[in-house]
Design goal:
Blueprint lengths: L4 E5 L3 E6 L4 E6 L4 H15 L8 E6 L11 E6 L10 E3 L2 H8 L3 H11 L1
Antiparallel strand pairs: 1-5, 2-3, 2-4, 5-6
């Protein structure tokens, strides 16, 4: 996935968690955040027919409060010029996110060999 680029969000964000299914969606706070939070909750409710409101939790993490156990940045891979991207994932630092998401030179060599 050499064409994918790392995107980093350093600001406030939402976390929508389904405790029964142990899954979470992380959503950067921006102008579309309200729609994305509702969409994540609707997705979780449709995947789990027995979900109750107390199973799905929505938390808001303010940039000024991101310390301690809170993850400080969100990151994902995105294809420039396309709508393709991965889900946002929380990380302690930008360096940790880049280390996890950027391909190693070995990975790029393997991709080139498999394309031949």
């Amino acid at each position: 996935m050499a064409f994918m680029e790392v995107q980093i969000h350093r600001g406030s964000y939402w976390a929508v968690t389904n405790h029964r299914e142990d899954e979470a969606y992380f959503i950067p706070h921006d102008s579309d955040a309200g729609y994305a939070v509702k969409d994540a909750m609707d997705r979780m409710a449709s995947e789990d027919e027995n979900s109750r409101p107390d199973v799905i939790e929505v938390e808001y993490f303010r940039k000024s409060e991101l310390a301690g156990d809170c993850k400080r940045v969100l990151a994902r891979l995105s294809a420039p010029g396309y709508l393709d991207c991965t889900e946002w994932t929380p990380y302690d630092s930008e360096e940790e996110a880049r280390e996890d998401l950027e391909p190693d030179e070995e990975d790029e060599e393997d991709d080139a060999e498999s394309a031949e």
